Input
Amino acid sequence: MIANLSTYESVQPDNVKVWFKAGPASKFPKNGGACIKYKDKQIAIFNFTRQATWYACQNLCPHKMEMVLSRGMIGEEDMQPKVACPLHKNTFSLKTGKNLNGSLDAIATYPVKVEGEFVFVGFSE
Amino acid sequence: MFYTYLYVILLSSLKSKLMKTIIVVGNGMVGYKFCEKIAAREESENFKIIVFGEEPRAAYDRVHLSEFFGNRDAKALELAPMSWYTENKIELIVNERVTDIHRKTKTVTTGSDKEYTYDYLVLATGSSPFVPAINGVEKEGVFVYRTIEDLEAMLNYAEKIKAKKSNGRAAILGGGLLGLEAGKAVMDMGLEPHVVEYAPKLMPRQLDSRSSNVLQLTLENMGINIHSGKATNRILGNGAITGMDFGEDDTLEVDMLVISAGIRPRDELGKTCNLEMGIRGGIVVNDRMQTSDPNIFAIGEVALYNQMIYGLVAPGYEMAEVAVNQIIESFEIVMRPEIDMSTKLKLIGVDVASFGIPYMPADKGLSIIYENKTKGLYKRINVSHDGKTLLGGIMVGDAEDYSILHQMYLNNIPLPDNAEELIVGARGEGGSAFGSAMDLPDTAVICSCEAVTKGAVCCSVIDDGNETVKEVAKATKATTGCGGCKPMVADLVKESLKSLGKTVKESICEHFDYSRQELFDIVKLKNIHDYDQLLDEVGKGHGCEVCKPLAASIFASIYNETANRQETIQDSNDRYLANIQRNGTYSVVPRVAGGEISPKQLMAMGRIAKKYDLYTKITGGQRIDMFGAKLHELPLIWEELIAEGFETGQAYGKSLRTVKSCVGSTWCRYGMDESVSFAIEIENRYKGIRSPHKFKGGVSGCIRECAEARGKDFGFIAVEGGWNVYVGGNGGATPRHAELLAEKVDKETAIKYVDRFMMFYIKTAPPLTRTAAWLDKLEGGITYLKNVVINDSLGIVDELDTDMQNFVDTYKCEWKEAVETPEIRERYTHFINSDETDDNIEFVSLREQKMPKEWA
Ligand SMILES: Cc1cc2nc3c(=O)[nH]c(=O)nc-3n(C[C@H](O)[C@H](O)[C@H](O)COP(=O)(O)OP(=O)(O)OC[C@H]3O[C@@H](n4cnc5c(N)ncnc54)[C@H](O)[C@@H]3O)c2cc1C
Ligand code: SF4
Ligand code: SF4
Ligand code: FES
Output
């Protein structure tokens, strides 16, 4: 199956209908990401340990439509948390999804919460 | 109280009576510069300024117009936003043409039939492209190259051509400065470029025929076709252009044509109100920029000064400065009698520059010419008969020295005794024949677009505390015009900082205010092992994709730690110890030291590649690359490879790739020594070492150089009586031959020198800089390097030797570590909540193997 950008649409915290249990927090590397599957979606989840925050976004890089963002490095630019695609280092804000170093389409971002040992991602369907 | 009030009223009404109106016609580069310069003066309060621009937008940077092809961003070219005009109380009316001037009533009328009164009128209407009266020029697909709208139209048309056919062609009429720029632009648009020039040579005004030939060869190699000595008779095509006819059955099929055959001043307003005009156009001005009507000024490309039109921004900017001064009654500021028309071609990927008198007959002076067609180089300087003054010159292929030669010419700096060194110079041996930009007088104008002197640049560093080219540009405006003076300004900034005992700051990113070398020393000194600790102790914020891998490389270089420990700060490839490929799969490359591989190993590799359905290919570095492994397959594949005796090839790391070897004296009848054995030994010595960038080696058994060792970061060549050692070579995007570090030394000495060279590089190079680029920038070059590694001029060789030996002693195969450690193995799954694999990956077949499906 070749991925389709329209599968991914940002979800705001108020619109969450499903909190999907993605896995135990311990499975996510410190200051790094991992990928999970939810229905037909691939979602990258980042454990931004330094900021004690979690972020989630589509795993699909809109540049060349590859499922790779979870393997990218995370970081921060002008106070914005961001992820750099491992293929060509396009960077995206983990808050707004905006492409920070170019004019690619924004990526979809999703709310994340941690309860107990587990990480949950919010979806609207 | 009452009286003060009255006084204020009186004053303000008096003031508005006294306020004079300046109308500027034309909001191009020079018209804008006039506004900028007058707005900066206090006296501007006494004037009301109204500007008319016929184009739909505020003035933009026409000089860099071609950049629009790359980014299609009109905003980026803007000289100042609309709000700037408002803030400076300048009324800018765009999209409005001034149609008539009535000198008696001192009014102008506009296209929408409005009338405005002026006290001073400034004509900055520029020029329009000259379109020769060739039969058929009105056809569709024929363009000129002057405004953003022209470019948009060209882009749209090119898209249409490309939709119809894959091999569309575009011709440029005119092989001058602008024509060549246009040629490159249409090539970048994906069309096959053809430059058609009437004269027998390119850039007829700036180049002599030999340099023009050299340029033509270079351009043709780049894929720009040149047709010189061709007069176009007719443009062919029914409605839209299909070709050009040069007469006598000589035609050229093209789908599009860009006319760049010179400019004609837009002097129609001057003509209709009877100002004095030049015979071939242009509004005549005196050295105050006044036309024959003292209240009307003309500046920029419309002005005819000393019987010449100047098609460059720098003279136009100077005219704007003069006009401003005349209007605010600083009458002593007038135009210089001589105008410098030196130029440097930009953007097209080959250096071309000419200054002063580019070429001339022998009775006027003597010329020194250096030509090397194989390298596309031509340099000529013209010197006075007494050998004392530089009259002008031409440079093709390498215009690095343009700025300084141009300055010598402008400032009449006496020539050295051996003037030829100016162009063939003792370069590479550290420094050129004529010293540095610092030797110029303070009055030397460095940035001619903005008339910034050397003194002003240095002052801005020394007295005003600016430390970077960017800051200096902001403070002085130097470099903000054509940008040609950037290298020289950068030199001046660097040297001025040096005179203050400071060095140029090269900070890594917003998180670390240090250069790589500084950070390297800090990590070592403070014995820091963790990235987080480094960030907390000497950095700020939370890091990024620039400083993380850089820190990882430093940790690896100091502690020889593998990429497995702090995996999330590693670059894409290091993180999973494999090279990520187009579709997010990986390639696997085991080490095959020196390119020597046994049949048994070959079979083992073949078996494993077959089992995991991998695409295999021999790499440029004499080993075998296996492509198409999915993330979760990597540990499985490596487990099998390791069982067969292979180890990681670090093809993913900024580390040693391969040491390429020829077959050498064991088999080759010419061989002077055993190149393979040496290559294997050295590859095993340096394997796994992380460095600022990847590095490669080569060993050849004799000077026939079959291993291409001089194209590598380090190379050994066997000669009578020992090995020659070369360093700093590179293939790739910017090829460079390695330089000789030592001659006829024995193997142990050869290794020792390269050990030290590598360690010195690892410690001091900026991030992602190959040895070639590092050596190029190293002050003193190879001579300095020899002193460091051979003569121990810095007293550090013991330390370099120990550090290198430590690397060699602590090597371990990181893939072995990975497959044997369950926590590391666990990282190799696509989903952490499912055992499924990535279903986004699709392959298609290719010559009995497979490849990733094309990007949609
Ligand atoms: C592609 C390209 C590359 C170039 N590269 C270089 C370079 O590398 N170095 C260099 O020095 N120079 C270069 N030039 C030349 C440089 O751009 C010109 O010298 C400069 O723009 C001249 O400025 P100007 O204000 O006189 O004319 P313009 O910039 O042409 O401005 C004149 C303006 O007046 C407007 N106008 C005309 N008549 C009227 C009217 N009646 N009413 C209202 N408005 C009117 C026009 O529409 C135009 O906007 C280049 C030019 C081009 C096109
Ligand atoms: S470099 Fe010399 S020794 Fe090596 S293969 Fe070539 S000819 Fe033979
Ligand atoms: S030359 Fe370019 S396309 Fe070929 S392997 Fe290197 S980076 Fe890839
Ligand atoms: S595929 Fe992500 S940056 Fe190119």
